[in-house]
Amino acid sequence: MTKKRLKMKRKKEKQKRKSANKRDPRRLGVGKKKKQRFANAEERIKYKLERAKIKEALLIERLKRYEVNKVQGPVVKPHELTGEERFYMKKMAQKRSNYVPIGRRGVFGGVILNMHLHWKKHETVKVICKPCKPGQVQDYASEIARLSGGIPIQIIGDDTIVFYRGKDYVQPEVMSPIDTLSKKRALEKSKYKQSLESVRRFIAIAEKELELYYRHVALYGDPSDRNPNSIFDTRWIEWARKVEGKEVASSITEECSHTLFQTDIDSMDDEILESEEISEFDDKCKNNAASASEIDYEDDGTHIGEIESCTKKQVLVELSTSIEYLEKYSTGLDMLHLCH
């Protein structure tokens, strides 16, 4: 690819992006923001509320462009399914993996086209709606049934619908209905819807803030009108009276605490005297027990000494006898050697 062709290609891509961004609701300008200094919070909140309400009106006008007049869909003869047939269809739909997704674009021509393509080979098809708000599945089920001519058999959870094509199903020539948006326009509509929801949420929060501000002013007065240095302000006089009352109450509590402290000290002295008497009695008992144990120990010592002296005498006697026996044995051996 030459440089000239590459430049032309990039230029075309840039133009496409610009045209797409023009329809982006985030570029929907209410006017350039000006840096302003507000006197109080009320002016700031009111200014933001005005801008948000203008944007809300613009978004509603833009969304009207994407409205399509409803046309009567394919007429389907009412088929009364028996309980067994309905049960069979449910089980068959759960086993099979064919499904049609519904995303942020919602129900548009491509969704109905895909359903008819699935019904060419299968009797049932699952429609999975993600993201799906609570209660929105019922709306999707009624709208898809009107556009496609299918019969909603079961709603699984909050995001899945099972559709049955019908007994005498014939594939239509135009599978995407006329009264549906294209894929591109459906995406644009979803962006405007999302922007409108966020703006309305912001308006609700701002109105609540303004209400809280008015309550605060009603209770405490306007903060801009306060003069804390003024002596004649009634609010400050009331505050001073309250402080004086608190000081009197604190002095009374101090006196009470002093008397309680003295009574506690007296009770502590009595307890100390009682504990000293008890400790003296315990010491006497311990001394008596120690003297008794010493006497027992001395008696035991005398007996032990006697036993030790007896054992020593026996050992000496045994040693002397053994020495005499050895001497006799040695003399006998000497005599035998001499005889030989």
UniProtKB/TrEMBL annotation:
GO MF: RNA binding
Alphabetically ordered keywords of this record: RNA-binding
Protein's name according to its UniProt entry: Uncharacterized CRM domain-containing protein At3g25440, chloroplastic isoform X6
Region Disordered, residue ranges: 1-37
Any Pfam family hit: CRS1_YhbY
Alphabetical list of PANTHER family matching this protein: GROUP II INTRON SPLICING FACTOR CRS1-LIKE, OS01G0958400 PROTEIN
Occurrences of domain CRM (ranges): 79-176
SMART domains reported in the protein's UniProt record: CRS1_YhbY
Source species of the chain: Coffea arabica
Basic residues: compositionally biased ranges: 1-20
Domain of life: Eukaryota
